[in-house]
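Protein details
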Amino acid sequence: MSKKGLRYTAIAAGCGLWLLGICIAQADDLDLSVEPAVNPVAWSGDWLVRGDVVRSAPGGDHLTRLWTRLRYGPTWQIDDQWTLGGALRVDESTVGNDEILQNNDNERSRDLALDSLFLSYAPTQNDKLLFGKTVFPFVLSRMLWDPDLRPAGISYMHEISFGDEDMFRITGGGFRGEQMFGDQSRIVALQLGLTLHQTSLVSPEFILTGLRFSNLDALVAAGLDRDNETVNGHFADDYALLDAQFILHINTVLPMRLLVDVDRNVKTSDLDKAGRLEFAVGNSFRARGQEVGIAMQRMQREAVLGAFNDDDWWFHAGTRGTMLWWAYGITDQVRFRAAFFRERPDWDSYSTRRLLLDLQWTL
């Protein structure tokens, strides 16, 4: 489908969701029951405004831009078990779409698109079946996955509570990657998670994840190889990732969070490992709350699939770097974050520096 056709499809889907919300709201207005009806449709989203400055080696990558993204749409609680939701996404930037590849972005700079469209079924509080295009339903660090990406597929999650505060979770699914430029990739994932003492002062979490990527030639053809090795229009290696995370939550008045993430591509025997260490203090997701943090990561060239990990980091594979951030909750819904990155690719002795200034409003 052409870009113009995709835009019309997104507009038509958005109009349909909007009309659906209006029809349901009008039906509620005509409800003559004694108790007032609760509107089952909730509208939500987020608005991000970002200042982005990148400085690299002389003659290398340099970027200064202002970028904004709005995501918004309805969620219809059909009944106690079924939920239907969707949202549109609008992007605008001072830099055009012709610079997406050189800026290592995972989204178009200027776009109108369908961000999500999903149907979920929860027969019990511990089970959830999810169909459609929406947030990836796995807990992964940004070393492996960009949380702004919206793959399309089906997943199932089951939780088992034991003891007073302990929980085991299993999630599995199959997806189409839905990256840019006609991506045809396929993703199969399975995740096991164990959380202990969820409401206690100290709560450890253990997560083991397997990810298998296939049908990747379209990514190479589109220029989304992102420093992973390619040969004759194909990736040189297959990508089957085994990832282990340990997360320690300290639930004090000043909360703390420690993440240790190790990853290996089991389909190759060289340059196949990656690791991330992250530590944050505070909570900026409430009014007048502050947060400071540091993240350090090292990714060998074939350890991760660079087309899908976080584009806040300038390099996606074969690199090492550090991120420092400070964030402040202006209100419960509005948050400001300043983040500084220093990264060095394996093929260069010069570090690239990046500053991101983000103002995010939860709608």
About this structure: The two ends are 32 Å apart (CA to CA). The CA atoms of residues 161 and 167 lie 4 Å apart.
